[in-house]
Amino acid sequence: MTATADGLTLRQLGPTIYLPSAVYSTGLGAVAPVIVLTAVELGASPAVAALVAGMQGIGQITGSLPAGMLIARAGERRAMLLSTALAVPAIGACLLAGHVLLLGAAVLLLGMTWSAWGVARHTYLTEAVRPDLRARAMSTLGGVGRIGTFLGPFLGAAAVAGWGLRGAYLVALIGVSLAGLLVLLLPTVPHDSPPVAAADRPRLRQVLRDNARTLRTLGIGALLIGALRSSRQTILPLWGVGLGLDPATIGLIYGVSGAIDMLLFYPAGRLMDRHGRRWAAVPAMSLLGLAHALLPLANGAIGLTVVALLMGLGNGLSAGLVMTIGADVSPAAGRAEFLGAWQICNHVGMGGGPVLIGAVTAVASLTAAALAVAGAGLVAAGLMYRWIGPRPAPPVGGAGPG
């Protein structure tokens, strides 16, 4: 495949776009399971340790809009290099933290840098890739990220076995530093948009006002998608514990679900490019909702495995979906700022899903929580059908839902 005047092909994006992203997500994936353990080691209670881990999500939410503004002023490449330059000391602070407050602040900064990296890649692909390949480009970006966060904990676990909890942070330092080095040394790919002159940049408030209807409609859909995706990560282990399954069995079931998820990212993108975004969005949300609705019927390891496979199938079909829809509706003027706001919708949903499960479980039961998430899945499917247009490949800078 070769480049055309309309944009780049996927093969050209491999070394310069997907490889650094895979390395970056692998590095941060290595520390994801050990942040809670580090907080406990520093004397935090389980509740405080969970709050410290949640600071990463808060960092992603609070960092999205500033990231969009930075990208509009400095360009994607410089934004990623700055993100890496801040992520390295943040990981170092986690490694050396002697107090839980310092650990929490470092995890918050780490979430902000991850957000900046993600918005930069999203903005670049929106502008660089041919419209007929956009969904495949976005789903592949999501896929390499999932592969990284899947492999990272295994590398982190090996390091922990040799050097204790701090070993995972060493893996993260190496991964993030290597990703930044790749961005710095690899040649700049065509279509890497230059910084926009200050006089030509719309104000953030204007961008948000001009796209308010899109954020109120499809943005709610992105929020629900994020909530459904993150809910399965919480409710599957909790249900396994309730069934009395041992941690190894629960981990195996969860891993099988993740494997199905990873295998589907490219077929999902191809489906969206050929037939339209609805063909992935509606089935994905319906499957995730159905899987949560069937969860109360899982009374053993086999039943939980079936539900987990169904969740993996639904989540895999949604690979790259939020990024693709965001790219479709992003405006030509103020695109980076809009995509920063768009990512907030998704991050709020990702943080809200586990909170919803915890709140409903505390008030009622885990079964009620599963049914509540199932209802959210059906609502999301309906909203996606209503607000996503049927066209397979809208042009860059497309209009909002009509």
What does this structure look like?
The chain is an all-alpha fold. The N terminus and C terminus are likely disordered. The chain has two domains: 184 residues, Growth Hormone, Chain: A (Up-down Bundle), CATH 1.20.1250.20; 202 residues, Growth Hormone, Chain: A (Up-down Bundle), CATH 1.20.1250. The chain is built from 16 helices and no strands.
Quick recap:
The chain is built from 16 helices and no strands.
SSE layout and pairings?
Blueprint: H1 10-31, H2 35-41, H3 46-74, H4 76-96, H5 100-128, H6 134-163, H7 166-185, H8 204-210, H9 212-242, H10 247-263, H11 265-275, H12 278-294, H13 301-317, H14 321-329, H15 335-363, H16 366-387
Helix pairs in contact: 1-6, 1-7, 2-3, 3-4, 3-5, 3-15, 4-5, 4-7, 5-6, 5-14, 5-15, 6-7, 6-11, 6-14, 9-10, 9-12, 9-13, 9-15, 9-16, 10-13, 12-13, 12-16, 14-15, 15-16
